[in-house]
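Fresh eyes needed here. Kindly weigh in on this sequence plus structure tokens:
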Amino acid sequence: MVSRVPGAAVSAERETLTSFPAFYRHWMPRLTGYLRAQTADGRWVEDVARESMLAARGRWDELVTCERPGIWLFRVATTMLRRWQAKAREQCTSLDEMVDGDAGTGLMAAVQGLPRRQREAVALRCLLEFPMTDVAAILDVSEPVAATHVERARRRLAGLVRQVEAEACGERAS
């Protein structure tokens, strides 16, 4: 699948292929930011990011020839995180063990509260500014489906922001 991306973005990604260390420096902060938006458990973020980079290192000869290696990296990381989360859910004996009271506040907590597909799509599109075609490729869905997930997430987040603002105004009035 060939995606339409502004020339600067393509050249920036191509520059990350000069060496694996350059690839790592370019993508690791973006990958960990994306993963943090997906889960409140920081241990998973670091582990999944490292495992994804190890997989990239193992396939470096193939990735060097890829047009968009970032898509491959994010797809691997997304799949890995889903598997880790599923395994954790199987190991939980109650819902209380799954809920972390310190999940964070504000927008990040709201993003983490979204359904999985919406959370993934909005993080890729709005936080990391991937083009919609890349979001669809990473999530392995069609472009219209990816756009639907992003739009639903945006609507839900807008509603949460309005609710927080209304509560804040109510507290000030009291």
